[in-house]
């Protein structure tokens, strides 16, 4: 015998009210009285009613779903942000669909198509290291679907953005190294097309300029986040005729990998060479020596990005504002410097 699935009709008949009233109560419409909404929700729970999200979306042109696309889950950075996004979205009645691009532009494009197919109400995205063409993201703008960038952003698109002050974080990290007596500071930089890489590089350069230290091009090496290359580049730096006495890395995974190479060379950290990272990964406090790094307010980033997206969803498109929120980083000094 086929089991009967509870519908809005069943709830309406049981309470002797209209289907439209039940529908409004289930979707949070403000015109339903609190007492009636409570009665409807309690009966819906008792009868194990499951909302037909497709039908609801057809009626109100909303799926109450937010899409999130991030470049990787290998580190703790994006998972921490994602937890904050999910919790903040849930408080406003939104579900979250998550895609990982794996640092691949092609996969990112496919992910955006998945989001459009699933009719997400809005999208939060951090672009890949390969992303230089933004046409797949501009589609959302043309369709009137709100978009928010987080961490890795596209400056040319006038949409809300939530970032950390990468320049200040890098400046303070390098200034700290200089103040501990280091004068020949190398930088393993990120992909040049990413704004975070350019901002951190500029912070590094300006710290050197402030303290009248020379900018030595052979000590600046951009790379594509392939950690195997860190071993090659770190060995290269250590084998220079005049090796660096400090290293500022684009992120903590880079710094941790460099530390392993330095230790294998029997050099002492920070006496022979100090190391500073960026991002305060979970492992950074527990490696030997513990890593000096720049911490970013990940939870706040996730909360702010979600709030910015929901704010647009609650407004007419003519009222949307492309506000960039810049959060402050924190230098955490440990034994590597």
TrEMBL record:
Pfam families: LacI, Peripla_BP_1. Residues 6-60 form the HTH lacI-type domain. InterPro entries: HTH_LacI (IPR000843), Lambda_DNA-bd_dom_sf (IPR010982), Peripla_BP/Lac1_sug-bd_dom (IPR001761), Peripla_BP_I (IPR028082). Keywords: DNA-binding, Transcription, Transcription regulation. GO terms for molecular function: DNA-binding transcription factor activity; transcription cis-regulatory region binding. PANTHER family: HTH-TYPE TRANSCRIPTIONAL REGULATOR GALS (PTHR30146:SF109), LACI-RELATED TRANSCRIPTIONAL REPRESSOR (PTHR30146). This is LacI family transcriptional regulator. The lineage of its organism: Bacteria, Pseudomonadati, Bacteroidota, Chitinophagia, Chitinophagales.
């Amino acid at each position: 015998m086929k089991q009967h699935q509870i519908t809005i009709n069943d709830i309406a008949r049981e309470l002797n009210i209209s289907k439209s009233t039940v529908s409004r109560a289930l979707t949070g419409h403000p015109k339903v009285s609190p007492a009636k909404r409570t009665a409807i929700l309690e009966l819906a729970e008792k009868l194990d009613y499951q909302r037909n999200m497709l039908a609801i979306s057809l009626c109100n042109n909303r799926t109450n779903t937010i899409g999130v696309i991030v470049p990787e889950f290998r580190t703790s950075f994006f998972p921490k942000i994602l937890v904050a996004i999910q919790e903040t979205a849930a408080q406003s009645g939104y579900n979250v669909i998550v895609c990982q691009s794996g640092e691949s532009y092609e996969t990112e494009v496919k992910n955006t198509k998945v989001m459009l197919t699933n009719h997400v109400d809005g999208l939060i995205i951090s672009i890949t290291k390969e992303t230089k063409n933004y046409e797949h993201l501009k589609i959302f703008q043309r369709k009137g679907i709100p978009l928010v960038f987080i961490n890795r952003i596209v400056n040319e698109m006038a949409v809300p953005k939530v970032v950390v002050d990468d320049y200040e974080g890098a400046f303070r990290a390098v200034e700290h190294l200089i103040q501990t007596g280091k004068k020949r500071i190398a930088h393993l930089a990120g992909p040049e097309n990413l704004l975070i890489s350019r901002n951190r590089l500029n912070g590094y350069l300006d710290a050197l300029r402030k303290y009248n230290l020379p900018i030595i091009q052979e000590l600046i090496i951009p790379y594509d986040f392939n950690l195997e290359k860190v071993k090659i580049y770190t060995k290269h730096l250590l084998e220079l005729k005049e090796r660096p006495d400090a290293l500022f890395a684009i992120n903590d995974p880079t710094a941790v990998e460099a530390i392993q190479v330095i230790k294998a060379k029997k050099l002492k950290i920070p006496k022979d060479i100090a190391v500073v990272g960026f991002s305060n990964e979970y492992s950074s406090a527990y490696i030997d020596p513990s890593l000096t790094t720049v911490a970013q307010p990940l939870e706040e980033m996730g909360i702010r990005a979600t709030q910015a997206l929901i704010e647009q969803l609650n407004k007419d498109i003519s009222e949307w504002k492309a506000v960039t929120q810049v959060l402050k980083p924190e230098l955490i000094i440990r034994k590597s410097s």
